[in-house]
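Hey,

Quick one before I head out. I ran the complex with FE2/S2 (inorganic) cluster overnight. Inputs first:
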Amino acid sequence: MHRKNVSLEDEDRSVDGSRRSFLKRSAAAGIAAAAVKIGDPVAVAASQPVIENGIPVEKLSIKFSVNGKEQSLSVDTRTSLLDALREQLQMTGSKKGCDHGQCGACTVIIEGRRQLSCLTLAAMCDGRKVTTTEGLASGDKLHPMQAAFIEHDGMQCGYCTPGQICSAIAMLEEAKNGDASHVTENIGVVARGQKLSKAEIQERMSGNICRCGAYPNIVAAIEEVQAGGAK
Ligand code: FES
Ligand code: FES
């Protein structure tokens, strides 16, 4: 049988070329899949790049609810929710501690779940409901968690406090819904409306760092709200 005379170098090039083309195809497919997963609205709403300071910037329009008020923004696709809140909506209650998902200072509540706004793209919030620390009180009446933090002195410098309070509120809802945590003893029997122990509260709040070390008072405040106090 006639075999085409192929040198090892040719074979290497061919294998290398196939690998390269496979990787290219995989990357393209991955990017396309990611775009669909993140959300069609993002892909659909994306506009042509505009030039800002000589740099092409992809902008898109989003509409979302912040503390019950509809907001429309034009955002760079790379803008985090935290930056959109602080720099475009001038809502500076949510703090930027690390901007890397490690401190919890930027915690907000999205559709009832606590989220790190520094790790959330503003584009992902299109059509969603966001609650920040500015939206917790009803007029002059503080949210029970805010009142409990004051009563128990759950803050010193206060930098972590907006994130702590948003996190604590949503965390108690998670417990009510029967979500387990790392220290839940028997995850097979987690009941809805469970009463959290101190250890459970500490574990569930462990993503919110307090550099002032106000932890005992923060936990006491949460325990009081859980018990129905601090109204
Ligand atoms: S600023 Fe978001 S986790 Fe630290
Ligand atoms: S009160 Fe200062 S960082 Fe928590």
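The pocket of FE2/S2 (inorganic) cluster (ligand 2) is lined by residues 155-161, 210-212, 214 (CB under 6 Å).

Talk tomorrow,
K.
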